[in-house]
Amino acid sequence: MGSARAPGGAVRFAVAAAGAVLAGVINGILGTGAGTVFYFVCLAVSGGDGDRSKDDLSTAMAAVFPLSAVSLFTYRAAGAADAVSFFTLVLPSFAGGLAGAHFAGKMRGRVLKSVFAAVSVAGGINMLLR
Amino acid sequence: MYLLSDIAAVTAFSVLAGSGAGGGGLLVVYLTVLRGGDQIGSQFKNLASFVAASCAALPVHIRSRDIDPALLAVFVAGGIPGTFVGSRLRSALSAQVISKIFGVMLILGGGFVLFGVIKDAVSRAAGSRRE
């Protein structure tokens, strides 16, 4: 958190906590979107330090994991779950996730940030067209 | 035919998820628009795919020390109760309205990040030309 624009400890905590609750609520309603909120909260608390892009995206992804697991449980509890195929969904997702994590280690923070922004805009257009 | 396109789509969106760039719910678009699935069932599959992708990706990110543990603790502590609140609100609120509001937020946020990246690239190029 080396940026000169980074907020102090208490403000940082308050922004992170409020952002976390908002991310959880959005994830609970829409089943997606928490990662984007977490990333922007990371940017806010780190003062938008461009060198931290990779760390911010990884932290956001790590935070979405338990939230998505909880959301998955609530979808199942609400009877909204279809059967999930191991071969067409779980296995390719696992392989893709592993490949993505290795690519991220080789990509520059700026490239990853651009991909994130493009995916966000595409996701936003998708939500507007729903 | 569908089997191969399903596997290709899921793998491609999981690469994005595993890299940390997220999926933007694009798997939901594929499942609803191209495969004719229902919205909630597709959201469920999108979540299941993300959980599987992050199971594989997280150990790699942890080994690379890319994760801020203090921030992660706050995110998880605030995010999980928020998820329960959100899942309660799912039936009470119009998911379509929320989806559109969040869509605008995503476009503005993504646009803001893209603008920053382009601005950085332009100033970097101008700097190297001056040198």
Describe the structure.
The complex is a heterodimer of chains A (130) and B (131). Chain A has 130 residues and is mainly alpha-helical. Chain A has helices spanning 9-30, 34-45, 53-77, 86-106, 109-129. In chain A, helix 1 packs antiparallel against helix 2 (34-45). Chain A starts with 8 loop residues before the first helix and ends with a helix. The mean pLDDT of chain A is 80. With 131 residues, chain B is mostly helical. The mean pLDDT of chain B is 84. At the A-B interface, helix 1, helix 2, helix 3, helix 4 and helix 5 of A face helix 1, helix 2, helix 3, helix 4 and helix 5 of B.
What attributes characterize this protein structure?
heterodimer; A: 130 residues; mainly alpha; 5 helices; 0% strand; globular; B: 131 residues; 85% helix
Quick summary:
The complex is a heterodimer of chains A (130) and B (131). Chain A has helices at residues 9-30, 34-45, 53-77, 86-106, 109-129. Chain A is 78% helix and 0% strand.
Gyration radius of chain B, in Å = 19 Å
Which ranges of chain A are low-confidence, i.e. pLDDT below 50, for 5 or more consecutive residues?
Answer: none
**Count of the domains of chain A:** 1
The most extensive contact between chains is: A-B, 95 and 91 residues
Q: What is the oligomeric state here?
A: heterodimer
Tally of separate helices of chain B = 5
Count of helical regions of chain A? 5
* Percentage of residues in helical conformation of chain A: over 70%
Outline of chain B: globular
Distance between the termini of chain B: 55 Å
Number of strands of chain A: 0
Structural class of chain B: mainly alpha
**Low-confidence residue ranges of chain B:** none
**Which class of secondary structure composition applies to the elements of chain A?**
mainly alpha
Secondary structure: number of strands of chain B:
0
- Largest sheet data of chain A: none
Element pattern of chain A in H and E = HHHHH
> What is the CA-based Rg of chain A, rounded?
16 Å
Q: How can the largest sheet of chain B be summarized?
A: none
